[in-house]
Amino acid sequence: MKEDCPSKADCCGGVHRRSFLADLGMGVTGMALGAMLHRDGISKADAGKVWTPPDGRPHFAPKAKSVIWLFMQGGASHMESFDPKPALNKYGGLTIAETPYSHVLNSKHSKNTVLFTGKERSLLTKLLPMQVDFHQRGQSGIEVTNWWPYVGECIDDIAVIRSMWTTDNNHAAQTQFHTGRHIFQGYCPSIGSWVHYGLGSLNDNLPQFIVLGGRILPHDGGPAGYSADYLGPQHNGIVIDVDPANPLPFSVPVAGVYKEEQEAKFKLLRRLNELEAVQYPEDPAMLARVKSYELAFRMQTSVPELFKFAEESPQTKQLYGLDNKVTRPFGEICLTARRLVERGVRFVEVIHGYSTDTLGWDAHFHLKKLHGRTCSEVDKPIAGLLRDLRQRGLLDETLVVWGTEFGRTPGVQGNTDGRDHHPSAFSCWMAGGGIKGGVVHGATDELGYHAVDNRHYVTDLHATVLHQLGLDPRKLDVPGQKRIELDYGQPIREILI
Amino acid sequence: MRKRSVVSVCLLPLSLVLKTRLVLLVTLVATLTAWTTVFAPPANPQSARATLSSEQAGTKLYTEHVREVLDQHCRACHNSSTKQGGLDLTTRQGLVQGGTRGPAVVPGNAGESLLYKLITHRQEPYMPLQGQRIPSETASLIELWIDLGAPFEAAPTMGEATHAAHAGMRSEPTSQAFFEKVRPVLETRCLNCHGGKLRQAGLDISTREKLLRGSDTHKDVVVPGRSGDSLLMKKIKHLHEPGMPYRSQNLPEEAIANMAAWIDANAPYSGALRASGEQGTSPQGSSHWAYKPPRRPPLPKIRRQVWERNPIDAFIAEQHERRNLEPVPEADKRTLIRRVYLDLIGFPPAPNEIDAFLKDNSSTEYETVVDRLLSSPAYGERWGRHWMDVWRYSDWYGLRSSDLVQSSQRHLWHWRDWIVESLNEDKGYDRMILEMLAGDEIAPTDPKTLRATGYLARNWFKWNRHAWLNEAVEHTAAGFLSTTLKCARCHDHKFDPIAQEEYYRFRAFFEPYDVRIDPMPGQANLVEAGLPRVFDSEPRGITEAGPAIYAETYRLIGGDEKNPDKERPLSPAVPEALGKLGEPIQPVQLPPESYYPFLQVHVQRDMLEQARREIEKAQVELAEAKKALALAEQRAAVPQQHEESLKAAHAAFEKELKPIFDKHCLVCHGDYYGRNEFRVLSVASLLEGGTDDGPAVIPGNSARSPLILRLRGERQPRMPGEAAPLPKEVIERIAQWIDHLPPADAQLAVRKAQEALALAERKLPWNRAHMAALEARIAADQAQFRGASDAEMEALGKSARAAERSAELLKAEMSVLDAQQKLADALRAPPPNQEGFAQVREKRVTTATAQLKAAQEALARGKDRHTPVGKHYPKTSTGRRTALARWIVRKDNPLTARVAVNHLWMRHFGEPLVASVDDFGVRTAPPSHPELLDWLAVEFMENHWSMKHLHRLIVTSRVYRLGSNASRPNHSNVSVDPKNQFLWRMNQRRMEAETIRDSVLFAAGELDRTLGGPELDHYTGQTSRRRSLYFTHTPNENMQFLKLFDLADPTGCYRRFESIQPQQALALSNSELSFTQSRLLARKISETVGGDSRAFVAAAFERVLARAPGADEEAESLRFLRQQAQLLTNATKLTPFQSGEPSEVPAATEPALRAREGLVHVLLNRNEFVTIR
Asked: Which among B548, B916, B1142 is the nearest to A255, CB-wise?
């Protein structure tokens, strides 16, 4: 307190004051807030003695700078997307036991599934034929279904991984896909948070881990799919709505406030905090808080600017399908994702979620109608994103990942024309950022029941992302936070350039 | 199959005639022939056909079969050196002499032979001990062998070790040597994790028999004689992941070679393996500080005794003196009073309280303040919230939109209120633990105490019992004992001395517990109100109500719930390293009011009251139905007018309502997949409605329209389900539209009104009959418990049954009519794209018809008992949780008091004494002040576990009162102890989320101090004035404002984060809360100070920051007021923000006042405001 000050020279010493002001004036160029806080040594309450958090530099030369993580919520059918199974057409209507592939029912891989409800989902053994045709696409001739005409055109930029598996047979697998843990084993940092934690910022006006599109629903883990857990809330994904009026919570004051008025208040606030800093020059929390207000103030401008789509050329807008009612919503999201990586945001998590007309990808029935619709919503925007990144020279440094929480059963669900959840096999793909194009990695059995060759648990995807960004997950470890071998995953080296 | 049938065919007749030796020889040949064909190809086919003497036959039996059985299953423990139970089975003499329990074998009489009785489980201890039961075929062979005189190979010589002395050594005289070579390796490198108590992966190598049993997942750990096939070899050669020894260097080549040779020599043992040294199974376990009961240490002698205000200071000063740390002076009084207010009650002192404190120089003025704060109800709220973190308070969550409770329970706020009240009345912490874990057993009829069991009710999880119990186990261990049992769910704990089996023994305390909601006085509807509580249930399978309750606890092999170790049911026990249960577990007999809650007077009264209200409601409905019919007929008479208003309503829907619905409702109630079949696409679909409520909209009657009721939150679940309520004006617009909406078809409306009337006419008699039936059933139920005569009970039962039957009949008739009407409706105008609809209704008709039929049949039968009014629960409780709780609060429990003290200390000082607050295991860093921790723990227990006693001690200590400013440190302090681990100053902290919000409200003089009650909708947090702990708090639903300031994670939060993020800045600078409150405060101050700007600045600083402004600050503030007022005078030239929700209190129109509002707003955003110095 003021009156507590024994002498002016003591607490208002020039050195302290100057260094404080210099610190403020220097700005925060080239550093994320998270990194700033680390530098100030205050981001973790219980930071150990020897251990230091990451300094924002990669551990080895990175191949990619940013990640766009496209997540198809609900469980996209691998058979009707990137892993066509003609055998299903041949044996459609028969039970699996009646096909030559009855052994899949007794596979050791079945053991991995963890029951969410404490009882087995009934085994759907009566096969449902593929609900869509497929063709070989591109130079590479990779088989893709006809629901993906535009992405199919880009297949030579893409490495398809057909051998993913996970363990949750319900939608908490969405959280598992992002944290690497079954929800019953608790929450862990999400992949975006690891990236945010490990790497510094390329832009000081925006958060470094941004979530666009849908949300993970509460009973599936909610924000755990983009939370930092023990890494600290400063590494959480920031959910931004593609809505210039109110893109994030409290982004604008209540009605009737003037910009000039607010600016003057921020000026006074800064001045008063400076006076406090003279008194408490070594209070790191204070410095960080002053900076957080500055970033907040800048975000009030920088975030709405993201949505100035008018700046984009008509060709670009068309590329993302902004001219079409079906493709426009996801097109705008994909376009925003590009604008974010262009501005140096490290990790953009895009969730294609439940919409007004569909159940997202959760096609328990009417698979043909539902997947037909969801594919048409995302196909052109995703392909547009890949092409746009390429034409801007950004694809080489941007890693694009397409994934979903699990696949769908080869068998038909009850008396419907849909498929149930299927954690034993699903497909993902990657493109850009040092990934080989036009390759297929891994395989499922003839029915698409189990991933059999080069099987990959979801953390292998995480490991690949971190590897391309130049990060070694083991070096990111936090003392006292035990990770098991499976948590680290293994980079999928076969698809790296 | 073949094997089994042949043996039984041969042996069965044989055993019948065994006593007749004569017959024996005749049958033996046939028998032996059968064996040889069954078990092994005969070495010499001819010999099998030769005639054998009984001794020869017995010998053959021994060499070919029995010897191996004894080797494999018995001799590991019963050999000449180990002689378990004094028994040596390696010689015939040993066999016949037997051990401490007498002869193992009576030659010629298997039935009398102990060995035979034990292996066939006719007598205990069952043999092989803890091993697989010997198959009955094998046992039959042994039976036969004993009956044949139990000969050994050749002619046995008495007592001589012509046979191998040990199991597995029969052909290898040097095998003892083999074992001695590998024994040291097994004992030093393997046994720590795979022996005795710790059995990582289920593997125990301490005896040969156990080794050969293998691990949970691999039976081939050692295959005797075949090292190449033995997993052990692959592991130590690192050919199989993880390689062994786990995470350490490979064994030397020589050791690996020895191991192979030993396995190839059939892996002989000579006695069980022993871990080296004196230690138990876990070398670190017993000596770890946290596992030894705390003892009160003597107070250290310190040099500067004047510094010591109370014993705490002695321990702190000792460290200062030892480390040459010079503590800073005490904080000034203003800093101190703000600190202790925020710390003890969670909001700052009011200006008059500061004044009084500053003026009081009585030398006990600070203690007076402390006592006042500790007796304030706000103390319980503040510290209640802390303990809610530790105990994982969460309101129910799941799918609000479907009203699906997935986790926790409805009305869990009762437990929150219990926490707050218990703290305020300074209930002992030991008593609190007892009530939370076992309130239903120690006070089964006291609803106040039962509230405490919300602690366990919170763990409820709809889908999976294992997940539910895991939470109960792991968080009970972490919260009360700071023990990480979690690791031991799948395997033995890697560091702490806790075996996997102990995890499940701990789980056994909770195995029978279940959750129910008891009715509360005045509330018969359990969805609207009730008391969630736990009880010990009967086992059951998976039901609609919830997951299975298991009868037994089993270890889940590898933590896999599909793979329980069913051979060994586990009884409750606490981990050995932490102590012993002490008292035995005593089942608790429950009083009738507990196992049959409907026996309570208030419950019956409320049920009858509800039934009476239903009658009244039915009367009103009948009157309304008559009126509605008249209105409909009237309207139908003027079709022209009707047409026009209908057209207008449709136009208004398209233009105004549809955009609202499209934005907020379509995701769940769209065209394709309407939730509960309810759609918002058109007027028609609104009128059609859904399966839950029927029509969503009742034309002309918004007050009764389900859509409006749900939008307003008057019916649960509120809509929209997982989002903020729609703005009031939007809801009112929809309501208005409904009030002006005419029925779609005037003629049809008449018919519908007629139908509604018909239904209402039936409903009233049913309601009356229901009331009568209820009264009769209650009378009959009561009779059972007040010891009425049989005749009286029978009479009452009969009349209850009769009344119930006639009510059932009326209800069924009504249901049929209702269903018929709805079916007719559906068939009348099947809406497009809703094919499922007619089926839904048809099903209702079928159901109702079936009910009618059932009721009529029951009436005809006339002999059934009446239905009891409510549910019966088990009459006894297992007492397991009481036993657990009593053990936790035993004074010799090494952890409980230490853990609690550490939690308290951390929340007073910002840093704990033991850094890892939820893990006191062997790998944790030792306490910074071990003696202080123990002294406080003992002090706590000896003062009846009084938290207020500890608070008082802590906050009146010298160390608590120290200044916190690190800016003028003694430089040697900084270099010696930069992190202030030894408390040479107070730590500075940011307020917790709740404290920030409460303090904003308090500063503005707006804080509503109402205590307790149901949780408040978190969406109202920006405008409500209630304290923050009362708002919905779940992993999914919580107040966004609070969440941004690192709110506790309700799935587990032993310590809060303290982050600094730009979103926090946005929340404090842009929220409705901070604008409204700063405007209100500015106006309040202005009312007192009038036009005096300096006085305004001074008062604003006092209210917000609890201090006067410095000269610079005053100057800056005054300049701001001037300039801002000027700026706002020309408001037309200013640029407003484009969007933003309207505020409850708009900005003042007068520029000077608006500038003042701005100043207060700035002060609320200051770093200092959120900082506790």
From this structure: B1142
Task: Tell me: pLDDT of B60 over 70.
Answer: yes
- In eight-state DSSP terms, residue B188 is I
Q: How far is B915 from chain A (nearest CA, A)?
A: 8
CA distance B482 to chain A (A): 14
Q: How far is B1065 from chain A (nearest CA, A)?
A: 5
Residue of A nearest to B1154 (CA): A261
Residue type, B259: M
CA dist list (Å): A141 to A132, A385, A427, A494:
18, 22, 17, 18
Residues of A whose CB is below 8 A from B665: none
Write the pLDDT tens digit of every residue in A40-76.
Answer: 333 333 444 467 788 888 999 999 999 999 999 999 9
Indicate the helix (H) or strand (E) that contains B398.
Answer: strand B397-399
**Cα–Cα dist B852/B845, whole Å:** 10
Paired sense of beta strands A209-213 and A238-239, if any: parallel
- Mutation site, B1137, B1141, B1161, interface A, largest A CB count within 10 A: B1137
CA distance B904 to B937: 11
Count CA atoms within 13 Å of residue B201 on its CB side.
18
Contact A116/B463, CB-based, under 8 Å? yes
Report yes or no: B838 and B499 within 8 Å, Cβ to Cβ.
no
CA angle B507, B509, B513 (to 5 degrees): 95
Q: Dump the DSSP string for B963-1025.
A: ----SS--HHHHHH-TT-TT-SSPPPEEPPHHHHHHHHHHHTT--B-----SPBPGGGTTT--
Report phi then psi at B1171, rounded to 5.
-100, 135
Q: Is the pLDDT of residue B862 over 80?
A: no
Residue whose C-alpha is closest to residue A407's, from A88, A79, A70: A79
CA angle B175, B181, B183 (to 5 degrees): 100
Q: How confident is the model at residue B286 (pLDDT cuts 50, 70, 90)?
A: low
Cis status of the peptide bond prior to B720, with omega within 30 of 0: yes
Q: Residue B120 is encoded by which pair of tokens?
A: 């066939």
Amino acid found at B767: N
A283 contact residues in B (CB cutoff 8 A): 966-967, 988
Q: How far apart are CA B216 and CA B231, in angstroms?
A: 13
Task: Render pLDDT for B361-404 as a digit per residue (tens, 0 to 9).
Answer: 999 999 999 999 999 999 999 999 999 999 999 999 987 777 88
Reported as a pLDDT band with limits 50, 70 and 90, residue A270 is very high
Chain A partners of B1100 at a C-beta cutoff of 8 Å? none
- On chain A, the residues whose CB falls within 8 A of the CB of B1111 are 2
pLDDT the model gives residue B1067: 95
Is the complex ipTM more than 0.85?
no
pTM (2 decimals)?
Answer: 0.79
Q: Give CA–CA dist B265/B175, Å, rounded.
A: 7
